[in-house]
Amino acid sequence: MISQKHLFQLPDDVHYLNGAYMSPLLLSVEEAGIEGMRRKRNPAIIDPIDFFTQAESLRQDFATLIGGDAQNVAILPSASYGLMSATSNLPKNNGQYALVVAEEFPSGYYAIDRWCREQGKTLKIISPPEDKSQRARKWNQLLLEAINYETAVVLISSVHWTDGSIFDLKAIGERCKACDTCFIVDGTQSVGAMPINVNDCHIDALVCAGYKWLLGPYNIGLAYYSTRFANGRPIEESWMNRSEAEDFQSLTAYRTAYTPGAGRYNMGEFSSFIHAPMLQTAIRQILKWTPQGIQGHCQSLTAPLLDFLASKGCLVEENEFRSNHMFGFRLPEHVDAVALMTCIKAKQIFVSRRGTAIRVSTHVYNTREDMDTLMEVMDDFFQA
Ligand SMILES: Cc1ncc(COP(=O)(O)O)c(C=O)c1O
Q: Does the reported pTM lie above 0.70?
């Protein structure tokens, strides 16, 4: 794939290597948002059925992206909301332990920590090995070994948000299935940029904020909930999630039944007339590029950077266990990370420092020039 920078509006002098923080907006997504805003100039053109139809097709497009069924998809305001829906509906009698990995993103950590406190369960944190070689591979092994019949739930991110370490969702999902352990995945840092299939990985809940790799606006996300959650209790009671909600005239004929599938976990006002069309436009573009295509583009862009980092003694996970669209590198101990970050920023290069890693994220809007500029700055810094 050639660079798709022309479909975005990033300023020419900005080298944006920070999609893991927030994606830039596709022109088409911006247009969809403006169109959504314009429609409210004249509410007479918004029919009651419009509250539901666009949301339905957004759920379908996300389902296509993750290999699931639209009925199992819910529209959310944030990852924390979707993770809370999942942890609020965990079975209570399938084990004493919840597992997370060290430095899990706080939206997931706080949700599972609350569940453990309220249910009298024990939270186990699986730390990476001290040994730096094959760190992520060994970390995966430690996690797999920790899952047993006493494990009620595993909550992890698909790739670690600080450095892009990959968790082998298929192997973990299989182990969870064998132990009747509920498997909750925060897909925010990979879904859209990396292939995933919820059925192959036996995932019970997959929750994604929309403003990173789904290329959507801030404040809308999507989740998949397997049939394990089909009879759960949503964290709010929106009128829109009850059966026959389309019949506006009879809304006070209060219904006990929720809409089938995961519809009960939709946020209130899920029609989100500005944000939903934006997110849908973005997902449709991703489906055209394909997550494999995006990984391929990022892989070819970052190959020279990986050689460069190795030549400077920086540590990066082995290829098989880190994503191509984002990864962290760890500097040799004597190198001042704060000073390096200052030099990088001075050249209008945007990366993030997370935990002990400097995180570089790329996408189809990045070019060879972005990578060359980063390497030039780092080279000058190392030689100074
Ligand atoms: C792994 C992960 N999950 C979730 C989020 C965002 O969470 P929320 O939507 O709850 O703000 C981030 C943001 O950096 C993240 O890295």
A: yes
